[in-house]
Write a structure and sequence with these properties.
Layout (H helix, E strand, L loop, with lengths): L6 H6 L1 H9 L1 H4 L2 H15 L8 E2 L25 E7 L3 H12 L5 E4 L8 H4 L11 H4 L3 H4 L10 H14 L12 E7 L4 E6 L4 E9 L9 E2 L10 E4 L5 H4 L15 E5 L3 H13 L2 E6 L5 E2 L8 H5 L5 H13 L12 H13 L9 H26 L3 H6 L12 E2 L3 H4 L5 E5 L7 E2 L3 E4 L2 E4 L2 E4 L9 H5 L3 E2 L6 H4 L18 E3 L12 H22 L4 E3 L1 H14 L23 H6 L7 H13 L6 E3 L1
Parallel strand pairs: 2-3, 2-6, 4-18, 6-19, 8-17, 9-10, 9-17, 10-13, 11-12
Antiparallel strand pairs: 1-7, 4-5, 5-6, 14-15, 15-16, 20-21
Helix pairs in contact: 5-9, 5-20, 14-15, 20-23
Bound molecules: NADPH dihydro-nicotinamide-adenine-dinucleotide phosphate (NDP).
C-alpha cells in the first residue's frame, strides 16, 4: 500500500511539491552532491573531536544547578529497599511502574532533579516538544488513561505526564528527589548494594537499576575566551526564565524586548527555541556551524472522539507498527505517519521500483542513497521556498545525508529568518572564533550581546561513569569504568558479569532503536520486573549474568554487525564520534541486535516469558 506523504505538501503547496518530486530524479546530479558532502565534511573535521567541548565546571558550574526547586531539607537515610532505581526519567518511571505491577512494594527512585521527568524536567526551553509522535513516545498512556493533546506534545505536558505516572504508581512515596548518587558499591558479604548520596544517605538495596539517560550531561563549546563574557549566559537545558521572562508554555519572553541575544548551536534544541527567541528579542544572532535538516512538522491536535475509538492494547500496537515501519519492515498501515516512517517508506519504495526487486545489502544501500538524495534535495528546496533572503537560504541548506545528524522537523524555524531582527551568522563550518567580555566573534566580526545562550548539546561519546556522575563498584571492588574501559560488555545491554543484582537501562547492545528511545525503555522495564519478581519468588539473593553468556552475546552482536558504509560522507557530530575513526570501544558502545529492533523486541519478550532467563544465574 502506498502511504500518505502529504506532510510537505501542506507547507510548500501540493502542486509545487508534487511537481518537484516528479522531476527530482532527473534533477539530482548525485556525483556533484556527494562531492559537496565530502567537501562540507572536510571543512569541519578537527583533530580534537570530542575534546573540543568542555565541562560546565568552575565559572560554569552554576549552569548545572537546578533552577526549578529549592531542595527541601531532610535527614539522611540509612535504610534498605528491594529495588533502588537511579534516575527519575522515563526509565525509572516505567521500571518503577512495572515493578509495582509485579508486586514489588518498596521501590525507591533516586533523582538529582527536584521532580520526576528526567530530560523533560531539565529541558524547559521555550518550544520544547517531542520529535517522535506522542502516541509512541509517551509511555504508559493506556495505563494512566491520558490522551496527548497534540501529535507532538509540548514539554509541559510531557513533564505533567511524568508526574502522572509517578502518582498513578505511587512512586513519590519512597522517592528521594533532589538527591545525587555519589557512590555505588556491591557488598559481597551482605549481598546488597550500598548507595551513598550528596544528602549523606547510606542506603542499601537488594537490586539496583540505573537509567541515567543518554543525553544527560550538558557540554559547552571550548571556544577561546568563553569564560570572559560579562553579560548573561546559560545552557538551554537550564533555561533562565527569570532573565528572559515568559515560561515553558511559550508565553512571550517579554524581558528580552530590549536585549541583543546570541544563541550558539543549531541542533534539535535550537531549532525548537529559535522561533520563540525571534519573536521576543530586540536582536537575535544565531551562530551556525552546521545547519540542521528541517523537514515538515505538521503538528495537529488530537481529536478526543477519534481517541475514544482506539481499542484496548492500542499503544503496544502503535509501538510495534512504528518500529516495524521505521526500521524497514512491512505492514499494511502506517499508523504514525511522520518524518521517521517516511524515511523508511521511501527506501522500501525504491527497493520495489524495478521489475525484479532485489533484497541484498547492496540493493538496500543503493535504495537508501537514492531515496536520501531525493529527501535532502526536497529539504534544501524547502529552504528556498520559505527563506526570503537568498544568501541566508543558501547558508541554511544542509549538505549531508539526513541521518548524519539528528533529523529535525519544524514549521516555524526557517520562517524565523524572515524576521528582520533575526540574523543568521553562518560560520561556514568553522564555528564561533572567540568570545570576549562584550560579545561573540565570528568570521572576523564582533557581535555585541547582552546574553549568550549555549544550545551546544550534551556529552555522548564520553565514559559512562563520567556521564552518570558516579562510578559503580561491583564484586571484588571492580569498577564499571574499568570493566568497560575497552567498551561496554553486557548481556542485552542490561546485565554485567561481576555486577550482580544490577540492571542498566539503555538502548545499546539491545534493540538500539534511536528513533524512539522510550520503546527501548518500555521493554527493559518489563524485563527487569520479570527478573526481580522471579528472584523474589524463588528466594534468590543474587542474580548475575554468567561470563560465558555475556561473551557470547557480544560475539553474536559483533559478528552480525551490519557493515553499512552509508554514512562515511557525514559532517561530524555526536552521531559519528565527531567524524573521528571509531575505536573498538566506540563500536561496542553502539552495537545493536543484528536482526534489528523488531526482532530484538520479539526475542526479549520470549526470553523473559520463558521463565528460564537463559544466561542468568539465580543463587
Ligand atoms: P546538538 O549536539 O545536536 O547540537 C549542538 C550544536 O552546537 C550543533 O549545532 C553544533 O554544531 C553547535 N556547536 C558546537 N560548537 C560550536 C561552535 N564552536 N560554534 C558554533 N556552533 C557550535 O545539541 P542539541 O541540544 O540541539 O540536541 C542534542 C540531542 O538532544 C538531539 O540530537 C536529540 O537527540 C535530543 N533532542 C531531542 C529533542 C526532542 O526529541 N524533542 C529536542 C532537542 C534535542 P555542529 O553541528 O557543527 O557540531
Amino acid at each position: 500500500m502506498r502511504h500518505d506523504r502529504g506532510h510537505s505538501a501542506s507547507v510548500i503547496g501540493e502542486s509545487t511539491s508534487q511537481r518537484w518530486r516528479t522531476s527530482l530524479t532527473t534533477q539530482i546530479d548525485a556525483d556533484a552532491v556527494h562531492s559537496k558532502y565530502l567537501a562540507e565534511r572536510a571543512k569541519r573535521l578537527r583533530s580534537d573531536g570530542n575534546q573540543q567541548y568542555i565541562e560546565p565546571t568552575g565559572k560554569f558550574a552554576s549552569y548545572l544547578h537546578d533552577p526549578y526547586v529549592a531542595p527541601v531539607e531532610r535527614d539522611p537515610l540509612f535504610d534498605e529497599v528491594t529495588v533502588a532505581f537511579i534516575g527519575g526519567g522515563f526509565a525509572g518511571l516505567v521500571t518503577g511502574a512495572r515493578l509495582r505491577q509485579a508486586g514489588i512494594e518498596d521501590v525507591r527512585i533516586i533523582e538529582k532533579g527536584g521532580d520526576f521527568g528526567g530530560t523533560w524536567y531539565w529541558n524547559r526551553y521555550p518550544g520544547a516538544q517531542c520529535d517522535t509522535a506522542a502516541f509512541v513516545y509517551l509511555p504508559l498512556l493506556e495505563e494512566t488513561g491520558h490522551m496527548p493533546t497534540e501529535k507532538y506534545t509540548h514539554a509541559p505536558e510531557i513533564l505533567e505526564h511524568s508526574r502522572r505516572i509517578a502518582e498513578h504508581f505511587d512512586l513519590y512515596d519512597n522517592a528521594c528527589l533532589s538527591t545525587e548518587v555519589t557512590d555505588l558499591e556491591w557488598d559481597d558479604e551482605s549481598r546488597r548494594w550500598i548507595i551513598r548520596t550528596d544528602r549523606g544517605d547510606v542506603m542499601r538495596a537488594k537490586f539496583v537499576a540505573m537509567g541515567t539517560g543518554p543525553l544527560h550531561r550538558p557540554k559547552l563549546p571550548g571556544i577561546p575566551g568563553i569564560e570572559l563574557f560579562e553579560g548573561h549566559s546559560f545552557h538551554t537545558s537550564r533555561w533562565d526564565y527569570d532573565y528572559t521572562g515568559g515560561d515553558p508554555s511559550g508565553r512571550l519572553m517579554e524581558r528580552l524586548a530590549d536585549k541583543r541575544v546570541g544563541i550558539i548551536g543549531t541542533g534539535a534544541t535550537a531549532v525548537q527555541c529559535v522561533p520563540h527567541l525571534a519573536r521576543a528579542c530586540a536582536e537575535l544572532y544565531v551562530f551556525q556551524r552546521t545547519p540542521s535538516s528541517i523537514d515538515v512538522r505538521n503538528n495537529q491536535p488530537i481529536d478526543p472522539e477519534w481517541f475514544a475509538t482506539l481499542e484496548p492494547g492500542w499503544q503496544q500496537r502503535w509501538l510495534t507498527n512504528f518500529t516495524i515501519l521505521q526500521t524497514g519492515g512491512f505492514v499494511d498501515e502506517d499508523l504514525v505517519k511522520d518524518g521517521w516512517t517516511d524515511i523508511a517508506q521511501r527506501i522500501r519504495d525504491k527497493l520495489f521500483e524495478g521489475p525484479n526487486p532485489e533484497f541484498t545489502p547492496e540493493a538496500f544501500e543503493r535504495a537508501y542513497h537514492e531515496s536520501d538524495d531525493e529527501k535532502m534535495a526536497e529539504i534544501r528546496h524547502r529552504v528556498d521556498e520559505i527563506v526570503e533572503d537568498p544568501s541566508t537560504a543558501e547558508a541554511l541548506k544542509p549538505w549531508y545525508r539526513q541521518l548524519c545528524k539528528r533529523p529535525c522537523f519544524h514549521d516555524e524555524y526557517l520562517q524565523s529568518f524572515n524576521n528582520p531582527n533575526t540574523h543568521l551568522v553562518d560560520t561556514d563550518g568553522k564555528g564561533v572564533e572567540r568570545i570576549d567580555e562584550t560579545g561573540v566573534w565570528a568570521n572576523g566580526r564582533h557581535h555585541e550581546l547582552d546574553c549568550v545562550i549555549y544550545a551546544s548539546g550534551f556529552e555522548v561519546g564520553t565514559e559512562y561513569a563520567r556521564r552518570s556522575g558516579y562510578d559503580t563498584l561491583g564484586r571484588g571492588g571492580l569498577a564499571l569504568s574499568e570493566k568497560w574501559a575497552e567498551g561496554m560488555q553486557t548481556l542485552h545491554g542490561m546485565h554485567v558479569h561481576g555486577f550482580p543484582n544490577m540492571f542498566v537501562v539503555q538502548h545499546a547492545q539491545a534493540a538500539n532503536l534511536i528513533s524512539n528511545i522510550p520503546h527501548n525503555i518500555v521493554e527493559a522495564a518489563a524485563t527487569i520486573a520479570a527478573i526481580v519478581a522471579h528472584a523474589q519468588e524463588v528466594g534468590a539473593d543474587e542474580v548475575e549474568v554468567t561470563e560465558a553468556a555475556e561473551r557470547d552475546w557480544i560475539d553474536q552482536l559483533e559478528q552480525g554487525a551490519r557493515r553499512f558504509g552509508g554514512n562515511l560522507d557525514c559532517t561530524p557530530g555526536y552521531y559519528n564520534n565527531e567524524g573521528q575513526a571509531t575505536t573498538r570501544a566506540g563500536i561496542l558502545n553502539g552495537l545493536g541486535y543484528p536482526a534489528g529492533p523488531v526482532a530484538y523486541f520479539a526475542y526479549i519478550d520470549a526470553w523473559r516469558n520463558s521463565g528460564t532467563f537463559e544466561g542468568l544465574t539465580f543463587r
